[in-house]
C-alpha cells in the first residue's frame, strides 16, 4: 500500500454521504418511487480502487432497493457467490414481486431489520420467491405501500397477503414498528393490516395524516402502542378537535407530529421584554448611517422577491415607521408582479406620488393567464392611461414580460398574455430603453397599424426580444443598422408581420446567438441569410424545412442546437431527409423536438407511433458526427418496470444508443439502460 493512502476511517467518512440512504427516503410511500431516477448507480464508487471497494461495500449493501426482475436476479447471483455480502443487508425495499430470486436474496440476508413491501402487484408478477423468503427473516419494522384509488386484485397479490397473514402473528415476533399507508378504514385496508392487528405487538405506528389516527387507534387498541407518528400535518387544514381525543384522552400523549409540522401562521422567537421601554434603536447614530443600516436590513426582507401589489406581509413592514417607509419602498417595488389592470393603477399612483421611485423599479412581470396591462383602450375599472403614466417613469426597468417563460411549441402563451398599446411600447423605449434587457410582452397596434421602425434605436441594452405584434413597419430602412447591438436572443411569434424580419435583417445584430421563428405565415430565409453565420441555436417550425431553397444547416453553419416545432398528429412527423443536413454539420450537438402537449398519450395512438418508428428507424447521424442528444419536450420517462416494458420512448432511446446519441425527456433527463 502506498504511504500516501488514506486510512479506511477517513475514506468511510468521505463516501458515507454518497452511499447512505436516508430513512425518510427509504420509507417513502409516494406514488412515484424516490428511487425512480436515472443517475449513475452508487455502486460505481466501488470501481475506483481496491481501498474504496473494501470500505464502500458494507454501506452499499446496508440498504438495498430492488425495482426490477433484473436487479433481483443480479443481486441473488452476487449474494450466492459471496455469502458475506448478505450479512451486510439491514434494510430491504422491494417494489414488486420479482420471482424466485427474492427467495435467494432473503436466504442470504439473515440480518434484515427493516423491510418495505409494495402491494402494487400485477397479475404478471410472481411473488412465490418473495413469500418463501419472508419466512426466513424476522424484521422489527414493516413498511407497506399500496394503490389507494383502485386497489389491485389478483392471484399473486393474494399469495403475498396470505403469507403475511400467516407469518406476522406467529413468526415475526420481533415486529414492533409499522408504517400504515391507509388514510381510511376501507375493507381493503383492514384486510391488509389484519395480521398486524392479530399480532398485538406493535409499539410504534406511522400513519399518513390526522384522519388516519382515529380509526387506526381503535383497530390497534389491543396493541401496546407507545407512539403514533403523523407523517403529514398542517394546522391550516387539519383539526385536533376530534371527538376521539375526548373519548380517549391518552391518545393525545401518543400522537407525535412531524418536526416540520405547521401549526398555522408564522412562529416567532420569544423575545424578552426590553430593559428600557423607551429605547430607540440607533438613536444617536447619524441619519445617513441609520438609513444605510436599515436599507440593508430591508433589502434582505424584501428585495429580489417578486410579489404583487397586494402582498400584505411585506407591505406591513412599510408601516413600522417613516424611516422604514422611505427606505423600504424602493425594495418593495423593485420586483413586482402585475396580476390585473387594477394593479397597474395601484403601482402607477404610488410612482406618481413618489417621483423618485420610478427609476428604482427593476422588474415588471405579469401572470399571463389573468393580467391585462392595457393603456390605450377604455377600462371599466378606471385604469385607462395608468400604464402609459407608469411606463413613462420607470427608467430603471431591466425586465418586462410574463412570469412564466414562454415555450416555443405553445404560441398561445404569447397571445393570451398581457397587452400594452403601441404608445406604451414607445414610452417604454424612450424611458427605459437604455437599461431594459428583456422584453416579452404583446404589443397591440389597433390605432397605429403602420408604424416606424426607429423605435428599435432606443433599446441599446436589450438582450432578449420576444416580438408579439402584428404591426406592419412602413419604413424598413429607417432603423439604424447599429440598433439592438446587444441583442442575444430573438423570438418571432405567430402574430408577427413579415416586415419586422425585413427591418432586423438590415441590422448588424453582432451579439445575436439564439433565434426562434415560431410562425407559419412568414419566411425567415432572408433573416438567416443575413445573420445565420452568427447563430448557435435556432428554433423553427418543422414544416419550414420543406420550403424550396431552405437549408437551415448551410444558412447557419455554426449551430450547436436546433429546435424543431412539430405539429401534433402522424402526418406532421418530420421527414428524415428534411431533418438531416445535406452536408456534414460538425458543430451540431443537440436536436430538440417541440411537439405540442399531446391530449392523447402517445402509447394509445398506433398511427403516430408507427410514424415515429419510421423516423427513428431511418435516423442516421453520419452527417452529424458530434450529435449527442435528441430532446423531446412532450414526455417524461416511465418510473416502474411495468411501464418501462411497454414504453415506446424507451425502445427508441435504446435504438439510438448504438449511434452514441442520448434521448432526453422534457426535464432534460437522458435515458439510462437498465439491467436486462
Question: Could you characterize the architecture of this molecule?
Answer:
- This protein has 676 residues and is of the alpha/beta class.
- It is built from 26 helices and 25 strands.
- The chain has a 13-stranded parallel β-sheet with strand order 9-10-11-12-14-17-19-20-21-22-23-24-25. An eight-stranded parallel β-sheet has the order 1-2-3-4-5-6-7-8. A two-stranded parallel sheet has the order 13-15.
Summarize the structure.
The protein is of the alpha/beta class and 676 residues long. The protein has 26 helices and 25 strands.
The radius of gyration over CA amounts to 32 Å
Distance from N terminus to C terminus (CA atoms, Å) equals: 38 Å
Q: Give the fraction of residues assigned to helices.
A: 25-40%
Shape: globular
The largest β sheet comes out as: 13 strands, parallel
What are the segments in which pLDDT stays under 50 over at least 5 consecutive residues?
Answer: 263-268, 374-383, 409-416
Q: What number is the mean pLDDT?
A: 83
DSSP strand count: 25
The fraction of residues assigned to DSSP E strands is 5-15%
Per DSSP, the total helix count is: 26
The oligomerization state is single chain
Structural class: alpha/beta
Task: Give, in spatial order, the strands making up the sheet with the most strands.
Answer: 9-10-11-12-14-17-19-20-21-22-23-24-25
Protein name: F-box domain-containing protein
Amino acid at each position: 500500500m502506498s504511504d500516501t493512502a488514506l486510512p479506511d476511517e477517513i475514506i468511510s467518512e468521505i463516501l458515507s454521504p454518497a452511499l447512505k440512504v436516508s430513512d425518510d427516503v427509504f420509507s417513502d410511500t409516494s406514488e412515484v418511487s424516490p428511487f425512480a431516477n436515472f443517475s449513475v448507480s452508487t455502486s460505481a464508487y466501488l470501481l475506483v480502487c481496491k481501498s474504496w471497494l473494501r470500505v464502500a461495500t458494507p454501506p452499499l449493501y446496508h440498504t438495498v432497493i430492488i425495482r426490477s426482475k433484473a436487479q433481483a436476479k443480479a443481486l441473488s447471483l452476487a449474494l450466492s457467490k459471496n455469502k458475506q455480502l448478505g450479512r451486510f443487508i439491514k434494510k430491504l425495499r422491494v417494489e414488486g414481486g420479482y420471482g424466485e430470486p427474492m427467495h435467494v436474496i432473503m436466504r442470504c440476508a439473515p440480518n434484515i431489520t427493516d423491510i418495505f413491501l409494495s402491494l402494487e402487484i400485477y397479475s404478471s408478477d410472481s411473488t412465490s420467491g418473495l413469500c418463501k423468503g419472508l419466512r426466513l427473516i424476522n424484521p422489527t419494522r414493516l413498511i407497506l405501500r399500496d394503490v389507494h384509488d383502485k386497489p389491485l386484485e389478483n392471484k399473486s397479490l393474494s399469495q403475498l397477503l396470505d403469507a403475511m397473514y400467516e407469518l406476522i402473528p406467529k413468526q415475526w415476533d420481533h415486529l414492533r414498528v409499522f408504517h400504515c399507508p391507509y388514510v381510511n378504514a376501507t375493507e381493503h385496508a383492514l384486510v391488509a393490516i389484519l395480521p398486524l392487528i392479530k399480532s398485538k405487538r406493535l409499539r410504534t405506528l406511522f400513519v399518513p395524516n390526522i384522519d388516519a389516527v382515529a380509526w387506526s387507534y381503535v383497530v390497534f387498541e389491543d396493541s401496546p402502542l407507545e407512539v403514533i407518528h403523523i407523517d403529514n400535518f398542517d394546522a391550516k387544514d387539519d383539526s385536533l378537535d376530534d371527538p376521539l381525543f375526548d373519548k380517549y384522552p391518552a391518545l393525545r400523549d401518543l400522537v407525535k407530529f412531524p418536526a416540520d409540522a405547521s401549526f398555522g401562521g408564522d412562529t416567532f422567537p420569544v423575545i424578552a421584554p426590553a430593559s428600557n421601554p423607551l429605547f430607540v434603536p440607533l438613536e444617536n447614530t447619524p441619519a445617513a448611517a441609520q438609513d444605510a443600516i436599515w436599507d440593508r436590513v430591508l433589502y434582505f426582507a424584501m428585495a429580489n422577491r417578486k410579489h404583487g401589489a397586494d402582498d400584505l406581509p411585506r407591505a406591513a413592514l412599510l408601516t413600522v415607521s417613516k424611516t422604514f417607509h422611505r427606505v423600504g419602498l424602493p425594495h418593495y417595488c423593485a420586483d413586482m408582479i402585475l396580476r390585473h389592470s387594477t394593479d397597474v393603477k395601484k403601482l402607477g399612483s404610488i410612482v406618481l406620488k413618489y417621483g423618485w421611485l420610478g427609476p428604482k423599479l427593476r422588474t415588471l412581470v405579469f401572470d399571463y393567464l389573468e393580467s391585462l396591462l392595457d393603456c390605450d383602450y377604455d377600462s371599466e375599472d378606471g385604469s385607462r392611461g395608468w400604464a402609459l403614466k407608469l411606463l413613462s417613469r420607470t427608467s430603471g426597468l431591466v425586465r418586462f414580460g410574463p412570469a412564466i417563460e414562454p415555450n416555443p411549441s405553445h404560441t398561445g402563451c404569447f397571445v393570451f398574455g398581457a397587452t400594452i398599446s403601441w404608445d406604451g411600447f414607445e414610452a417604454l423605449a424612450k424611458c427605459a430603453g437604455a437599461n431594459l434587457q428583456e422584453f416579452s410582452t404583446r404589443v397591440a397596434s389597433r390605432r397605429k397599424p403602420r408604424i416606424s421602425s426607429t423605435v428599435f434605436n432606443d433599446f441599446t441594452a436589450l438582450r432578449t426580444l420576444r416580438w408579439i405584434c402584428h404591426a406592419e413597419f412602413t419604413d424598413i430602412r429607417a432603423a439604424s443598422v447599429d440598433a439592438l447591438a446587444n441583442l442575444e436572443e430573438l423570438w418571432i411569434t405567430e402574430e408577427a408581420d413579415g416586415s419586422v424580419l425585413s427591418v432586423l435583417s438590415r441590422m448588424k445584430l453582432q451579439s445575436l446567438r439564439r433565434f426562434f421563428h415560431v410562425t407559419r405565415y412568414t419566411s425567415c430565409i432572408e433573416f438567416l441569410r443575413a445573420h445565420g453565420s452568427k447563430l448557435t441555436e435556432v428554433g423553427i417550425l418543422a414544416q419550414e424545412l420543406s420550403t424550396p431553397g431552405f437549408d437551415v444547416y448551410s444558412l447557419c453553419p455554426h449551430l450547436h442546437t436546433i429546435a424543431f416545432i412539430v405539429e401534433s398528429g402522424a402526418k406532421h412527423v418530420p421527414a428524415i431527409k428534411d431533418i438531416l443536413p445535406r452536408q456534414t454539420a460538425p458543430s451540431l450537438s443537440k436536436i430538440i423536438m417541440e411537439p405540442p402537449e399531446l391530449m392523447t398519450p402517445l402509447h394509445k395512438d398506433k398511427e403516430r407511433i408507427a410514424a415515429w418508428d419510421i423516423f427513428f428507424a431511418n435516423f442516421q447521424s453520419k452527417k452529424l458526427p458530434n450529435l449527442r442528444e435528441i430532446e423531446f419536450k412532450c414526455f417524461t420517462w416511465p418510473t416502474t418496470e411495468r411501464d418501462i416494458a411497454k414504453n415506446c420512448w424507451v425502445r427508441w432511446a435504446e435504438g439510438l444508443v448504438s449511434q452514441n446519441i442520448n434521448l432526453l425527456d422534457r426535464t432534460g433527463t437522458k435515458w439510462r439502460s437498465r439491467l436486462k
